[in-house]
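ok so i was messing around last nite and threw this chain in just to see what happens. nothing serious, just curious
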Amino acid sequence: MMAMQLLAQCVQKRFDVGETCGVEVVVQADEDVKPRDRIEFQFPNSWMVITGPSYTRELQGDKPDHPHFISVTTPEGAETRFALTIKPRHLNYPEGEVRHGRLVTAELVSGAIPAGTPIHIRYANTFAPYVAETDALWLRVNGQAPETEPVLTVIAGAHQCFRVIVPSYAVPGEDFDVFIVSLDRFENASSTVFEDERLTRTDGAVIAEHLRLSGSLRVRTRIDQDGVYRFRFRDTVSNAVKVAMGTRKLYWGDLHIHTKLSHDGQGTDPYVYAREVSALDFAGVSDHWEALGPEGYRRVTEWADQAHCPGAFVTVLGDERNSKELTGDHNIYFRDAETMARYRAIRTEGTEAPPNTFTRLQEADPSRVMLVPHHTGINWGELPQGGGIGRAIAWDVCDDRGLRPVMEIYSQHGQSELYDPQHLLAYEFNRMHNPERRANTSVPGPYYAQDYWMAGKRVGVIGSSDEHSGQGGRRHGGVAAVFAKTLTREEIFDGMLHRTCYATTGERILVEFAVDDLGTGSVGKRQRGDKLKITLNVWGTDTLLRVDLMRFRKGVDKTFRPVLSTAPRPERMDAMITFDDLVETSCLYYARIVQAPLTWPAMAWTSPIWIDIKEGQ
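result:
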């Protein structure tokens, strides 16, 4: 017996991002549909979230005039009736965790539908996603899939702002790209087309004329003379590029990107966005392990393999797994695909321990496996009661065996530098800038970077977004800056392993920080009374509001203190600072930068530099 043949198509195939709309899908079978036959369908997560990862649209089939109404009908006059059931199900991994996924089942309870009769599935009084992408509607009739899946395409909105991005370092005479992107209000590459445009440097040099910009554009250029340069497209100025011989390389990336493979995520092309909209050098999808399953891990690896191009764009493999032994939330990253395959978290029949438990990593090699804690002082919603710590991370409850060389000091959730619930970037406020407007809570206690450093933890910092739209590298999401010799997966991993990295809130703020000859993340030994020369050079992307050099002396200080704090005047984007200090005891330094706008400032934090006292003193 031949299987039922199905045709299915969306009446409206393209939708404007965020628009109020309805979706209609017409299904036709080449066989009669009889009582007790079932039509099952599930919309992508992007059509189920409200304005972010926390909240889900409430599908209903009872009130046609209310939001998110679902119906399944046949042409007027046909005496048929369907009974609808709606239940949670994660589309990628039905056995896994679920938040947004909703499986709708329409069972024919009366009447019969002759072969070829159109069956109308309607999703009314709803709105299009804020992510511009194409995704498929999952559809089955008695378990049979249509010949071609119906797809829903969301079109980006009109232009709202530009970004202009260049490498942080270049060699004289070396070609590099100036990347220009037009963004809509949701930070998709916009649908607006610009004609006859001009790209210049801020020193007046004309780089290109008669440019056409549709979404994003790369303009090839070179600079022959040493110096620090910026570029201008219309009124938007780029980050700084430092041109000099022998410069090291600084690469920018976002390692905390969730997609539709996560139970609370959306997004189908994470690496396309990272490369073609955010102009990142590296990126990592880190979907929740409990929503992945074998198929999810296969797709994560496939996406990474397809996008990976050493020297141009690098993908880093990992996932998010939050073992109870470590408290709080952690991502895990792997130096290579072989190591990921060995330690991936998949439930196996006959085992009692969950696959995300830290005991599974007892034999892991810290040079190949890395755990990165994030939003280390957060609790979702309100302050935990009864003396609990909520989702905060108590670092010392478990020996991590050196598997945590860095922490995520900033993400879209807010800053994890120190406990300060009134901070402009606190968990209480940071996501309130997003369409979702989600407020969380800072847990009082030793759960922040400064606390870990004062307790003797030698941990560096990165930024990454924890973005649940598949869109890494957005302007306020958080990015990691990693110094490395070359752009490879191994070099990026090793850069974090050795703490030669720093964090920003999303802007490409260039920071050079050193104590004597020790660079970011280093450990050095000095004698008491030795003089230290500290240099801090900053090239911002907007007016600098505050540059702080922070210090903590073991056995002397009870908290971090700024040994230098300045607001560069007249207002400018650059700061060149030198500072001399005397060694009294073991200590550490880090730099903190704040730049405009004041209402939602951009920031940067360096990994510390540690100074130990030489033995015998």
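not much to say yet. Residues 293-307 form the longest helix (15 residues).
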